[in-house]
Design goal:
GO terms for molecular function: phosphatase activity. The protein contains 6 helices and 6 strands, in the order E-H-H-E-H-E-H-E-H-H-E-E. The chain has 195 residues and is of the alpha/beta class. The chain has one domain: Rossmann fold. Strand 2, helix 3 and strand 3 form a beta-alpha-beta unit.
C-alpha cells in the first residue's frame, strides 16, 4: 500500500532572520513565520488535503507552526527534533564548519563542538518517519519539523545533485513523499512552497 507524507519545515523564526544556529535551542516565530503558516493552512483547506494523523518535533517553533496549520490533535516526538549544533547553538552561522559539496553536508563537523554528526541525525529521522508511516491507518500524514534534519532525511532518498541544485526548502516548505508499506521506502514527489 502506498501512503503519503507531507513533511513541513517550521515557519520563519527570529534566529532564522538573525542567521543564528537553531538546533536544540529555540526562538519564536516571526510575524512572517506566523503569516506563512496561516497560508499553508489555507492551502491545505483550499485543496481539500486532510490528514489521518499529525506529528511535530518537541521544539516550540515546530509545535507553534503545526498549531497554525491545523487544529487537529497531534503528537510531539523527540525523534523529529533538529540537529544538535553543540557549542555553536545560538551562534552566527558563519562560524559553522565548512559545507562539503561532495557529501552534501558538514558531516561530523559539529561533533568537535559537542553536537551530532550528520549520520546520527539522518538515521534518527529515517527511523522516526518510517515508524510513523508503517502504523495502521496512517494513509496521509502531516509532520512538522526542521530545516537541517529534514534536509538530511531528504538526502537519504534523493540523489545529491538533485537535492543541491533543484530542491528549495524555505521556511514553511512542504515536502511531499509517497511511502511504500512493503519496501518501507520513501519517494520524494515534490516541494510545495506557498510563501
Amino acid at each position: 500500500m502506498t501512503k503519503t507524507l507531507y513533511l513541513m519545515r517550521h515557519g520563519q523564526t527570529l534566529f532564522n532572520v538573525l542567521h543564528k544556529n537553531q538546533g536544540v535551542c529555540d526562538s519564536p516565530l516571526t510575524k512572517q513565520g506566523i503569516a506563512d503558516a496561516k497560508k499553508v493552512h489555507k492551502y491545505f483547506h483550499q485543496n481539500n488535503i486532510k490528514f489521518d494523523y499529525a506529528y511535530t518535533s518537541t521544539q516550540e517553533r515546530a509545535v507553534d507552526t503545526l498549531e497554525l496549520v491545523t487544529d487537529q490533535p497531534y503528537q510531539r516526538l523527540k525523534g523529529l527534533k533538529e540537529w544538535n549544533f553543540g557549542l555553536l547553538e545560538g551562534e552566527n552561522r558563519r562560524l559553522n564548519p565548512p559545507f562539503n559539496p561532495k557529501i552534501g553536508s558538514v558531516g561530523d563537523g559539529y561533533v568537535q563542538y559537542g553536537g551530532d554528526s550528520a549520520d546520527v541525525v539522518q538515521d534518527r529521522m529515517v527511523r522516526t518517519l518510517t515508524k510513523i508511516m508503517i502504523q495502521k491507518n496512517h494513509h496521509r500524514v502531516l509532520v512538522v519539523g526542521h530545516g537541517a534534519s529534514t534536509y538530511l532525511f531528504l538526502k537519504n532518498w534523493v540523489p545529491l545533485d538533485e537535492l543541491l541544485n533543484h530542491i528549495e526548502m524555505r521556511n514553511c516548505a512542504i515536502l511531499k513523499f509517497s511511502f511504500d508499506d512493503e519496501t518501507k521506502k520513501f519517494t520524494y514527489l515534490k516541494t510545495i512552497n506557498v510563501n
